[in-house]
Design brief:
heterodimer; A: two-stranded antiparallel sheet; B: about 425 residues; about 75% helix
Amino acid sequence: MKLLLRLGRAVATVESALVVFLLGIMTLLGFTQVVLRNFFSSGILWADTFLRQLVLWVAFLGASLAVRERKHLNVDVLTRFMSERGKKLARLVTDVFAGVVCVVFLKASLTFVQNEIHQGTVLFLEIPTWYFQLIIPVGYALLSFRFLILNGVVDLQALTRKSTTESDPG
Amino acid sequence: MLTLLIAVLLVFLAFIGAPLFAIIGAIALMAFAAAQTDSSIAVVELYRITSQTVLIAVPLFAFAGYMLAESRTPQRLINLSRAMFGWMPGGLAIVVLISCAVFTAFTGASGITIVALGGLLYPVLLQEKYPERFSLGLVTTSGSLGLLFPPSLPLILYSMVASLTTAQAGGFEIVSVDQLFVAGILPGLLLVLMLSFYSIRRGAAGGVPRTPFSWSNLWVSLRAAAWEIPLPFIILGGIYGGFITATEAAAISAFYVFVVEVLIYRDLSLTHDLLRVMRESMLLVGAIILIIASALGLTNYLIIEEVPQKLFEFIQTYISSKVVFLILLNVFLLIVGMMMDIFSAIIVVIPLIVPVAKSFGVDPIHLGIIFLANLEIGYLTPPVGLNLFISSFRFEKPIARVVLAVLPFIGILLIALLVITYVPGLSLWLTRVFHVL
């Protein structure tokens, strides 16, 4: 159990570092591109394509981190009127549901990437497209892991334990 | 029967807080399974998101907005607008409206505005003898004001989702974000102006003491915000002057705000605050893009099955006039805005609404402005509008008190909404004047 939470925290650290690094690149490269285009009438040919791929990477990593902090967008009109116990139960049910959906998407995205490898398309600078697309299955794997295993265990514990202290999902 | 059961179950799951991307994803997966299409097609559609040039603007504007929200910009913004407008009757109320509108335009998410700016302004309003109920209503209402002003994230998202929808339907027409940036200005000003007139009247009627205008005050607050003031001018001037695109404006904003807040003002420390802000802003971006990604699979299915077409035909058997359609659209969108946050609402509802509205002859740009104006009000709509809850939580007031306080403001906003809906020129006139493409 402790080991699991520690694993979750380790993954979060790596994700956070990557997100910060990629966002830094996006800001700098994006700005450089504007300067080149407007003041030197040139620009890096592949920069825009590359930047859009990076957005997908940042998005999936950010989405995985958002699971940990329960920041995913939802409608939740009912929970606004629920008791503490009801909220805990709702959390368990919704986390498991989201986890299952992510597993199915994980499977679908693996098929997708395999097809792309077969087709062998190249995005730019001879880099195969599927290198960039790899973030989709990786992202869904991370999401599944967080929803089903990390959050699922924490929710279950919160529900069975009497104490009201909130535990931090790894 | 089974379909109905599943639908009820999914709605229930959504209402008890299941992530929206999972709900939409589940619907898409089931639709693909029913049509015996391989689920990997859903991922093919998902990956199409990278074909949108405006995609880069989403994380960069979100990053810039978070940096502004986490620095001392709100305080400087309030000081500056107090120095500029505080002398007017009801001056402080106008300060609230203007600073919140500007802040929301740059940060996009309206919950932040109530917490960051409302928290600072509400005590000052009470201190200056504004009635409690009026003050509470004002800060709650102002929390969503400004969504129509560039460079708000909802405008960018609307452009992206609407363009993707038309592209999936086989069209090439792009709902340009540059046009939306221009189209929102007059309707946005209308909302601010109408609320300002109401505040001036209330301020004068309540006999609120007025603070005299002072040049030295203005000078001090201008100097304090000297580095932030150019930002709107660079962005808006650049876009309206045709020098830069909205996407380029995002890159400039992110870089400029970083330099100003981290290196010049040092409101955010490079090692600690900046990393946290970067991370937190990308949580929101991840959550938003994941919903768009799941929705793309679904809209693809909807379009193959000609659902918008059928929806249009169904509506048309009951309604044939554009006027009636727009009224129903407003009612529908108010309910949507009450139940969903603005990002989810755009992603979920737009793919269905855009084709139908187009068949009724509503311009997609005008539709975007109607849409966002509705959602702005939806945030305040009882019983479950999100801002009511944020405000009740932040100012420790019972929900019922907040609801009573916002009612007159909702009334004014609804009148403005009717004008925005039935006078398309208000949204479209400037786009023709500026010749924005």
